[in-house]
Design goal:
Layout: H1 6-29, H2 32-39, H3 43-50, H4 53-78, H5 84-93, H6 100-112, H7 117-141, H8 147-166, H9 173-189
Helix pairs in contact: 1-2, 1-4, 1-6, 2-3, 4-7, 5-9, 7-8, 8-9
Length: 193
């Protein structure tokens, strides 16, 4: 197998720099100047390797959603067939599986989706897939729960997950990780009633 081309290497460096910038400054605050500085390249080289800002944003969204879907599907396939909700909580609320930078990037994309119809559709589909997967998993374990209960608990679990890691810039994840897990457990326990 041959070496990656300079274009592939530079594109990878630029996307990694853009990802870090989005986590730090949000999508709107991630200017080409900041991306160039973060990647160690001149602004003109950033444009040369990845094109204009819209192309760069599209590449980042493709990458983030693809990686997210791959990791999520891998996680789902690792869950036990019996009582998967215990491992689901472990995966969502364990500091071993926490990635505050990733959550900040996702939240930046969600925020930017309010001003970009195409991005909004992509982020809606991603979020709906995530929610549907959790609801389906819970439906198998809590067969007597109503669709409304399953939907509410799924949304609650996902909301707790995103909110917890969104606190990363405040340095408060450790303080709230256990309470978030307890709240998630209480939501799951509500399905037994």
């Amino acid at each position: 197998m041959g070496r990656p081309s300079k274009k592939e290497e530079r594109t990878e460096e630029i996307l990694n720099a853009f990802y870090r910038c989005v986590a730090r400054y949000g999508l709107e605050g991630s200017t080409l100047e900041r991306i160039a500085e973060e990647s160690g390249l001149k602004r003109s080289l950033v444009r040369h390797f990845v094109g204009n800002r819209d192309e760069l944003v599209s590449m980042l969204v493709d990458r983030v959603l693809e990686q997210s879907n791959q990791q999520w599907q891998g996680f789902l396939s690792s869950l036990p067939a019996e009582q998967p909700s215990t491992e689901l909580l472990e995966g969502l609320f364990s500091d071993q599986h926490s990635d505050g930078e990733y959550i900040l990037v996702i939240e930046s994309l969600i925020f930017a989706a309010g001003r970009d119809a195409q991005l909004q559709q992509r982020m809606q589909a991603w979020m709906q897939g995530f929610t549907d997967d959790v609801e389906q998993l819970l439906k198998g374990e809590f067969a007597s729960a109503s669709e409304g209960q399953l939907s509410a608990v799924s949304f609650g679990l996902i909301s707790l997950y995103f909110n917890l890691d969104s606190l990363a810039p405040l340095g408060m994840n450790d303080r709230y990780r256990q309470p978030a897990r307890q709240a998630a457990k209480a939501l799951l326990n509500s399905l037994n009633h």
